Amino acid sequence: MNALEALQNKTMKFSIIKEGKATISVPLVDAVSKKLPVFYNPAMTMNRDISILLLRALGRKDMRVADILAGSGVRAIRMLKELPASIVEHIHVNDSNPKFKSVMTKNLRLSDCPSKKLIVTTEDANVLMHGAGGFDYIDIDPFGSPAPFIDAAVRHLNRDGILALTATDTAALAGTARDACRRKYWAEPMRNHLMHEIGMRILARKAQLVAAQYDKALIPIYCHATLHYSRLYMVALKSKEAVSGVLDLHRNVVYNTRTAEFGIRDNETQEEHDILAGPLWTGPLWDADLAKKIAKLPQRDETARLTSMIAEEAKIPIIGFYDLHGLASGLKVDCPSFESIIKALRKQGHQAARSHFLQTGLKTDADITTLRKIIDD
Ligand SMILES: C[S@@+](CC[C@H](N)C(=O)[O-])C[C@H]1O[C@@H](n2cnc3c(N)ncnc32)[C@H](O)[C@@H]1O
After folding, report:
1. Disulfide check for 145: which of 169, 194, 225, 307 has CB 3.0–4.6 Å away?
2. Which of 24, 40, 69, 91 to probe ligand 1 with, by most ligand atoms within 8 A of CB?
3. Average pLDDT over the chain, rounded to whole?
4. 270, 179, 363, 230: CA torsion to nearest 10
């Protein structure tokens, strides 16, 4: 029986689960669905792990936090239970689900979590943000695209505040649904091995354009594309000059299917075999020091594998990466190990690391000729 049938038959059962230091009651179902009476997706545990690691690594004090699409409230409960008390002043935890307050009461009790730092509401997220004043961290974790919530969020993000965006509409950002990408993100996606990095950069630019209207410059500080979603963290600088600097970095990117080269293209001309994407954010996607701090914090093994890979990738602030497997098969040689290729590139004075965006992705500042030669040797 699926979630909807169970609901209609009023047979839905709940189970008590643990995630981090939270204990919550969630629907017992075979498959996660939007139609659940309380939304909880265990596949998003790493998403929540990283939001907590990021707040811990930033080490700020007395933050006003908003978790505006809270589902079961697990993220806010974990923040209260897992972060040092000095980091969070209060959390405004909200979900338009009319049952949300009773869900939260139950989960706070199960988690033995004090509620004095929480404000719990059941409003539409945009209405809430317009009425609630400024925040130092706003978490937008919707079904599908975060686009409908970005305007209200950036308006109510304090100076130096952090905006956290999840996008699960991978089809739009990664180029399967091109029209949806044009409508929601005002850009052309790219459907090849680069698609998840290109999608992240398209998402960043969309938020930056919305923020620019309010003289706020959103600078990416951390991101990851994991399973079926993209997650991006940006810091809001209140400065017209910084906004101009951000807009200057919105460019198009070209990939040539014949040569496997990629780079920034300042006009929209397309040579034969060119694929064009953008406009998109061409600046760094990570603050490398922050990525290093995050990777060093205690965390689950699965999360540590990702954050340590990102800490290396973040040291190379360039656009795009090579598909090592694709290049090796083009050269008709066995795919070499990443370790050997990275070592050889570094020996020649290049930066090189795996890219978390693709299992066979290699980020390096070496050109394609150098890389092909090393693979072929
Ligand atoms: C993907 S779930 C959130 C999951 C949650 N952030 C977590 O980490 O478990 C999206 C939630 O947004 C809520 N929602 C959808 N539209 C909303 C709106 N306009 N305002 C407030 N809540 C909304 C849904 O009830 C649902 O619980």
Report:
1. 169
2. 69
3. 94
4. 170
User: How many angstroms does the Cα of residue 143 sit away from the middle of ligand 1?
Assistant: 7
- Per-residue model confidence (pLDDT) at position 229: 97
CA distance linking residue 215 with residue 212, whole number of Å: 5
pLDDT attached to residue 261:
93
Residue 8 is predicted with a pLDDT of 56
Report pLDDT digits (tens) over 183-197.
999 999 999 999 999
Dihedral sign computed on CA atoms, order 137, 196, 338, 259:
negative
Angle, CA 255 vertex, CA 252 and CA 228 arms, to 5°: 85
Q: Which CATH fold would you assign to the domain 289-376?
A: Phenylalanyl-tRNA Synthetase; Chain B, domain 1 (3.30.56)
Tokens 């009790």, residue?
A: 109
Q: Give the CATH architecture of domain 42-288.
A: 3-Layer(aba) Sandwich (3.40)
Instruction: Give me the pLDDT at residue 5, please.
Output: 60
User: How many residues does this entry show for the chain?
Assistant: 377
